Amino acid sequence: MERPVTRRTVLGSLGATVLAGCTDSGTGGRDPVDGGSAGRSRGSAVTDGAGPPTTAERLPLPMDPSSVRSEAVSGGPPKDGIPSIDDPKFVSADDAPWLDQGDPVFGLATDGGAKAYPQSILVRHEVCNDVVDGQPVSVTYCPLTGTAMGFERGETTFGVSGRLVNNNLIMYDRGTETWWPQVLATAIPGPWNDSPAMRSLREFRLVWTTWKRWSNRHPGTEVLSRDTGFAKNYNQDPYGSYNPRQGYYSPGSPPMFTSFSDDDRLTPKTVVLGTRTPDGAAAFEKDALRERGLVDGELGEMAVLAVHEPDLDTGYVYRNPEGRRFDYRDGQVIDDSGTAHPPEELPLDRTLAFDAMWFAWSGFYPETTLYV
Questions:
Q1: Displacement of CA 220 from its chain's centroid (Å)
Q2: Which of 9, 37, 133, 290 has its CA 20 to 30 A from that of 297?
């Protein structure tokens, strides 16, 4: 029998997490491989004092920044009431027997190695301030919008503000105390910094997959340890279960807070692979992409191509300005010369894309194109 998820039960669980945190003692960065070099933000980095590095071009917002702020609501816990992981430890795959084969993990592979960040840990912390290949980064996860995203953080760290917008985590950086809604990845005014520079963060791709798929691809992967210095009970997700999807994650359940979206082209929690640039946004229904292998689309006035990668059950989106034709055969992509390419390495310019629940995506990007 499916147990309904209420805000009270969730907050009660998170409160236990914080309490446990009080009582328990508890890598010039090379480009990612899985996730992809083209999965990074484009353009040169812009630094702003003690804040995180940003991009020269700003990502789109659904409304002006002050209006986004006015839509922010309390998620229950106060600032840092959901504690970020600031001193992460990692173990080998053999030392993570608690991971089931179907458990969701957020994977990051670089030339320096592979790391897996289990959803079951990040659901209680939402932010992990890490260093990968010598580069300070933050791996973030919002359970209410089903989004896992990576950001460069420079010399600062990110924390959890305790506020939400369109159900999405609002992070803040501890250098300037600026609010950064995770999916928008762009500064908005907030109570601790009401006039930040309106810039967008430098992002990188994480791969949402299962432990079985990730460990098969990267048998030497490191795994984020449960020894976080906070809660020790990572066996229960306060929002439900992804394997199978139950509770809050059940496709038919409503968002926990008011959503920006009234777009009913898909049920609210249908998973889409979304991509956005300063020129616009596009979304590809994950099930349709999985079934078809390749899906042509448009992002702004640019032709794009979405590709399914079957081993990790993920997808990638490429700019395809010349409308090149490709075929999909047995998990490989064949170009017009007959050359086979793995889905993550097409001879095209890749955009950053990530999984999201449809209500969140369409709420933030109401002009998005959708391909089903």
A1: 23
A2: 37
Cα Dmax for the chain: 63
Q: Which residues contact 211 (CB under 8 A, 6 or more apart)?
A: 99, 100, 101, 102, 103, 104, 105, 116, 118
Amino acid letter, residue 371: Y
| pLDDT tens-digit series, residues 292-329 | 999 999 999 999 999 999 999 999 999 999 999 999 99
- b/e burial code for range 29-55 (CB count within 10 A of at least 16 → b): beebbbbbebbbbeeeeeebeebbbbb
Do 363 and 147 meet the contact criterion of CB atoms below 8 Å apart?
Answer: no
Instruction: Pull the structure tokens for residue 110.
Output: 């670089």
pLDDT tens-place string over residues 242-276: 988 999 999 889 999 999 999 999 999 999 999 99
Query: SS3 for 168-233, per residue?
Result: EEEEEECCCCCEEECCCCECECCCCCCCCCCCEECEECCEEEEHHHHHHHCCCCEEECCCCCCCCC
- What is the Cα 121 distance to its own chain's centre? 14
What is the C-alpha separation between 345 and 349, in angstroms, rounded? Answer: 9
CA distance 250 to 88: 30
Rounded Cα distance between 7 and 3, Å, is 13
Closest CA to 14 of 86, 82, 79, 74: 82
Q: In this structure, what token pair is assigned to residue 205? A: 């791709």
Question: What is the pairing mode between strands 168-173 and 245-247?
Answer: unpaired
CA-CA distance, 140 to 82, in Å (whole number)? 12
Which residues on adjacent β-strands are paired with residue 46? 54
Q: Map tokens 């001193």 to a residue.
A: 87
C-alpha distances (whole Å) from 164 to each of 150, 181, 240, 253, 256 are: 18, 8, 19, 19, 11
